[in-house]
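hi!! sorry for the late reply, been swamped w classes. u asked for the two structures so here they r. pasted raw, havent cleaned anything up. first the sequence of the first protein and right below it the tokens
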Amino acid sequence: MSSHVPHPLRHDVYVDRDERLDQLSSKSIGRVKLAQQRSNALVDDISRWRRSEPMVTSIHVKDPPACGWFVRVDSVSPEPRLDLWGIQLGEIAHHLRSTLNTTLTRIVEAEGGVVTKALQYPVAYSAAAWRACMKRGQLRNVPERVVRAIYACQPFVWANASGTNPANSVLAVLAWLNNRDKHHLEIGGAFHGRWVEYEGRIITPDGLSLSMRPQMSFDWSLEVGSRIVDADTSPYLVSEIGRTTLDMQMDILVADELGNTTVLEKLLEEIWAGFQQAQVTMMAAWADESVDHDRFSGASAFKRGSGFGRAATDAENGEGAWDSDYVRRQTANDGRAGSSALTELDLNALLDAEDPPTGPVDWAVLKGLTDTHSPPRTWRS
């Protein structure tokens, strides 16, 4: 005698929307927890290196006829672990990207559908790319409301609303970092100065004391013997340096697929923001069977006769209504600034646990580096 055991996420078992959302989100917490641990470890490692004041420098007067002075790098210990930090960043991106795929798999299983090999969360830069994803069956057997939610988060839909490059979407950044790491290409990084503050005096060979702002150039390679600061005091020769204060702040920059560079810690924030928007929107859409499809961004693309994937006339929002975003629109009027989940995310209990938790997850705070009540960061500046 056989008995039917319902799937733990089937909608015929968990009818309540909040219960469905909790059950689905709890299945992802193990990997999200791991990504959070990796994120904290990366930021802590960089902070420890900075706090150790690893660079020893000395200031020197240029020999005539050169005018000015320079700061030479004498030693760097411990050396910065740029390659390792790039590997850690790629690993974090991989965990977040994989969570989108596994959540999609659980949704199909919960609906009683067949999980195909092609099933994958798409990240499309154009309507044509989206149609190609659909043709490959990446969202086969996914409920329509979830398809709409995924479409609303696509880089090209955001780009149509904002008039910018879809590759600058934070979801696109997450996908690019994951792909680069997956293909065993180094993400790498390089140092650059965020700011330099200088106040000082020079003494000329005839004894004149001058307060001046020299023309400065910088070498951020941190190689021993390099001139991290080269100051040109033309037309004045320098015999000695008077009272001088020089403060500098360095950042680690990582280049993206467009060649733009972003501070590593900020890039980490962006991939968490891209993940949180895609993950929370997808889960919320699945949990709410009665969700209004027209509340999703890009809803006009699904209208009859709309020329799919292009701006069309929406009966409610007018022509080219790409900005009726289900997530962003509900939070746009809240004026609070985003906050850092790396410092505010309360996961102490989770991180202390030996086994991944199985209970409900508060996705209101598992949103990367974006406050739950402020608009998600869906663009890069």
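now the second protein. again sequence first, tokens right under
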Amino acid sequence: MATILKGVTGISRIIDKLSMTFAGHELITPGWADDYTLTIYEAVGQMTMRLYSARDSSYVNIPTTTSKDETVKMGNNFVPHWDVDGCPNFLSLERWIPSAIKPYVLDPVYVPFLTCFFGGMRVLPFEDTIDDPAFNTWQILDGKGDLYASKKDWLLSFYNNLKTMSGDPSWPAQRMDFTQMFRSGDMWEDGLESCMTFDAIGAHRVESSTENPAGLTALGVAELLPFVLKLNSFNSFKVRPGFGKFGVDMYFTADGLPAALETTDGKWIKRGDKDWQYWKFVWRSSLITIVTLLDHLYLTHFKSSNTLARSIRATLPPDHSLRRFLSIFTFGAIFVNLQAQFVLVGKNAMLHRAVPFEDFEGLSSLVPGILPDVAFAPGIPGRGMEAVINDAVFKKLPAKLQQAPFYADGKLVFEALHRLAQAFTEASGMCEDVASDEPLKRFLGMLKKQMAEAGYQSNMSTLVLDSHNEDLCPIMQKRMAVYMFMVTAWHSHVGFVGDYYADPDLAGMSWKTGELSSRPRQAMIASVINIFTSTKQPKLKEDYTHLFKTGLEAELSAKLTSMWHGFQADFEKVKKEIDLRNSNRKVPNINMDPDVLECSVAK
């Protein structure tokens, strides 16, 4: 596979030389791209994405069998080799393979081929090239002001006319135009950090402060800065030579404006100081990448969706009502998580080359142990999931956070999913005699086993299968709603990063110490990761009742079908309320909009 990929690189180089000879300019690589970057752009961006088609609810297959519990281990992640509920048709051509031969083509040939295709890229030379005074620098834009007004224009030019087979742009549709709202010449207005913290991706990590730290007092800051988003706990992650460290703790006024920060080396800086813009860039880049790595990849994909999908496939028979129901929320999870093992997590893979961490494999083993239980993500007391799912905790949030879209809209979505979980247990009768449901006991037992196996923190011990435990059913319903929220709404909140990484001046997965933007090569690698993880998937609001119409008793089928139609009507009310809220917001946020939410983490 590596030989094939090197061939792709060689052909691209030849085309570039011909373009230089006859057109006077290179097509792809004017002074910044190494063989790896060129290959992933061509192989993923130009080839794979063009063969992809948007998916809908019809792609979710009816289960037919249970699986063996076998996995590929990388770091502390254990992902099955394939999905017994069927390959999720990543490429549209899969739908045309006759069902009689699919078991002999997809699992033993096609899926391993794709896995090896992505894994093969890892053997190409690994070069950071951030110390060369000319190569992989933004000098590539010198004299090209007529073509590119900014680094953002340059980066997006690679995707302007790049569409999938279903006609969708490969670069995801913009949700928030931060550049338009907050860019003023070469400076970013402080409203950007305020927006990211309270209106967008950082809200679940905001903490309260009841008194100013000594460093702020020494700076002469008299007013209390009641909000802080801390990232300096991550500055212990060692980075490769030349790269800047992750971190920065940023403090905000009661109105939500950034007022001061503590740098990665413990220095305190006030708004307006000469290094203010640089350290804001470090904070933005650290925030987006930490959320991407911890809250998205590891917590949502590996800890939530992977454990859920692996458990139901291996323990619940295909005609079990819970297997049918959770098939909606685990669609495509095994396939995408397997590819993530090789595309993102593996040594020398895309994410390793995009981020600056020195010991990437060690990070993969370390992260699971620092992740909280899914019901307490991201691990800040009284924040994140704990406030979304618990009314008493939500009411203790400061008013500014209660109004933040993540909490306000997230609570609406969670409550709808909780009602759905309650409706499911009633329709299926699952709570009537839990202690005698052997498949259910195996399912919950395997969930616990996986948490221990991977070193994850978990409160699954609360699910004690005791027929005398009157609280068991409510606990199961809420736990089910938490998982459903994690793979839908939480995934949307932490997983949509295209608006940030589209502009290397706004944020980057890595940067050279002292520079206020990501380098071209590293920005391009991050952009390829973004398009590969932004494909269109089945929406949660769609009709999945085909899962309940075959192989189930008629009465159960009717109840489950009615349950789902009830949820669709309920979800439409949620949408109307979020639309109303967004019409009154200075910065609308559609991350929780039912028109946006997908049913699973299949991307």
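hope this helps!! also noticed smth abt the second:
The CA atoms of residues 126 and 153 lie 27 Å apart.
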